[in-house]
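Quick one - inputs below.
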Amino acid sequence: MLNMKLFKEQVELIRADHEKRGISCEPIDTVLELEAQLVDARHQMEMARKERNTAARAIGVAKKSGDAAEIERVMAEVTDLGKRIDELDEAANSLIEQRDRVRMSIPNILHKEVPVGADEGGNTQHSLHGDKPEFDFDARTHNELIEMNKWVELERAAKITGSRFFFLKGDLARLELALQSYAVDFICKRGYTFIQPPVMMNRQAYEGVTDLSDFETVMYGVEPDKLYMVATSEHPLTAMYMDEVIDTALLPIKMVGVSACFRREVGAHGLSDRGIWRVHQFTKVEQIIISDPEDSWQHHEDLLQNCIDLWDSLDLHYEVVNICTGDMGTVAARKYDLEAWLPGADAYKEIVSCSNCTDYQANRLKIRYRKKDNTHASVHTLNSTAVATSRALVAIMEQNQLEDGRVKVPEVLVPYMGKGILEPCSF
RNA sequence: GCCGAGAUCGCAUAGCCUGGUAUCGCGCGUGACUGGAAAUCACGUGGGUCCGUCCCGCGGGAGUUCAAAUCUCCCUCUCGGCGCCA
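Output:
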């Protein structure tokens, strides 16, 4: 959510951003109009309250002096004022609610270097990494590999939960665990603190970190308890500091979290989504930074560099992409994706997403820091995947496959696995 | 799940019984003193603001009252005790 100060002092900035995104400026005008009404309503209410406070204090004085007629007169006056205040208060609250409902739908201000484009076709290449593997046989898709090696149970999982859930078995499950440990170790060596978050959150905290429409399309709700399963550990790890003023000396706070992630994936269909590429539950190692606004763009580059170094060390071929205006979403001000090459699909597909959300989440969550001049300001929040394990498994399987369908383990993971080749499962 | 005690500005803490302007301290900021600093002293230090001897704010919500941090009820969380439990 954008700060009201921005609407009052630099509304041209918001308008210019909407032009760039190719969306209507109408909501901006609505916010300004509601704000003008609110200021007026609030002022009227304050004046009425002032009158009442003054009169009510006079009652205390009059009671001590015992002037019964005077007490009665003032009390009648105060009762009338009370009714008027209630009405004005109700009007003001309704205006705030209307204003913020519109304000929440207004997206973050983009970084000036975000490429302009209508949809994902407008994304541009940032850099290309690793060598594209060559096969002297027909490369298989990950679907074929998991089936011939019996590494994944999709149909049996469907019996007990539904489609898009899975059991991960044997060497592939062990590789998943190895990836988690390796990625956590890798990021911790760079000064991040490992944190395991809760995987459910309440509505209020969740509204602070995500787009409202996500409640319909992304999140699972746990009904009787009014909780939501987290879609990524970014959400609990960012929200954990809500309503706090952080000691400036503690910034930046750098965290690496691991959690199961739950997504409804409403409307996702198609051949490219089969297997374990797009599923309702997967595990993700995530980097989070809570930063002084002055440093956040440097941290954003650092997060990307961590990903590049990590994925280079796995010896995989991928590209880094600049996400364009039309593909950005509401919360991020700038976003890089890593897209791994999948020989089975003959395409580059998203495996990592690295965002600077600037103060957009922090405004909503009221995560502030104390500045030198003793005033408060919102922090910046950043997040980046390190590895989403199920997608990393797909990339490793497809790029490291052998002719017989077995898979070579990346060098750096061999110590975590205790073996260099993934063998088929016996059942 | 049951019983009890709590939640007050960045931190800490008083006010609650007995309703009438949010207290002391620490930290931080500004100024004075100084060659400079420390120490000391003064002022400031939740949000809003049309800058007022203004309005709001004491975990959240409702109620009683002319008036609620203060009284009543409901909820959330924390701490202690008991129970259950991987």
